[in-house]
Amino acid sequence: LKMETKNSLKKIASILNEGDNIFIFPHIMMDGDALGSSAALCRVLRSFGKRAWILIEDSVPDYLKFLDEDFCTYDDTLIRDPEICIAIDCSDLERLGKRGGIFANGRTSISIDHHATFEAFAHVNCNDSSFASSAEMVYELILEMNGPATAEVAEGLYTGIITDTGNFQYSNTTAMTLRRASALLDWGLDHQRLIVEIYQSMRPERVKLNGRALWEMELFSEGKGAIVSVTRSMLAETGAVMEETEGISEALRNIKGVEISVLLKEWEPKLTRVSLRAKTVGNVAHIARAFGGGGHVKAAGCTLEKSIEESKELLKAAIEEHIKGLTFQ
Ligand code: 5GP
Ligand code: MN
Question: What is the pTM of this model?
Fold first, then answer.
């Protein structure tokens, strides 16, 4: 039995309007889209007098801390018997990490997601990869709910849009993306402040790690592939943490001629997390899926229970193979 994955946001709005106790679930290792969308929705739900919390299990990254105004909690007992559990930006149940069981306890569970790879896991699923960000779906949802069009709500949504489109650079950016972003500025959003929070408040350790890692990048497949590893020892050298590798895979893709870039993160000695990016015709969701991961056509990831060296060989081989099959214009 294949689950319906294209329920309308209108239907989700009416379900949310009926509920009073709601848990929101961003994906593990949250990014700007997952947390920004969740924070905006949480704020709107509370403005309607509902009890709403964002239930998380790992830490909020430094560059997103400004979004969490007492919305995030690790305490799953804050709402004993949630009427509604809503996952945002999660392409499958695994992305909920250890919270899968709590999510399933919701009397009604909902999923809003925009990934190209999606496996329905809620009672009501709305997946649409024509949206560049989950934030844009939540924007439409908030309009359906007649939520408040305030600067504070706009902040979370705009964060999701700019982080998932690489500041409107990526091919997922549509005319609608720009219209929605424009509307959010009209809601009174402090654009300058937001940019400083997200992009211009880095720890020096993070910038050092960037340089340290990129110094060791390797090109392969006649310059169409680029790979870099971040090891535990690089973290020790620079004082950075693994979450501060955000942006390294994009930096590699910026190289002229590179079609696919990959960042390997040595999470544990035998656990490697992989971030893949494609530039034009490549499909990294396809590559990630072969390793049990997923994501978008041009930004995807997977996790290997292998050493960083073994992972490197496997990924290079898979990417080489993929690049061979591509036709460049
Ligand atoms: P990032 O490289 O920024 O961590 O992730 C890029 C995209 O790939 C995100 O949209 C994320 O949802 C997806 N992704 C990253 N890692 C995994 C993974 O291990 N499994 C799946 N299914 N998707 C992943
Ligand atoms: Mn997203």
Answer: 0.93
Residue 114 beta carbon below 6 angstroms from any ligand 1 atom: no
Give the model confidence (pLDDT) of 54-92 as tens digits.
999 999 999 999 999 999 999 999 999 999 999 999 999
Ligand 1 pocket check for 286: Cβ under 6 Å? no
- Give, using CA atoms, the residue closest to atom 16 of ligand 1: 301
Residue 311 pLDDT > 80: yes
pLDDT over 70 at 146, yes or no:
yes
Copy the structure tokens of residue 120: 């329905």
Q: What is the largest CA-CA distance in the chain?
A: 58
- Ligand minimally distant from the alpha carbon of residue 263: 1
Q: Buried b vs exposed e over 198-236: b needs ≥16 C-beta within 10 Å?
A: beeebeeebebbbebbeeebeebbeebbbbbbbbeebbe
* Contact 315 CB / ligand 1 (< 6 Å): no
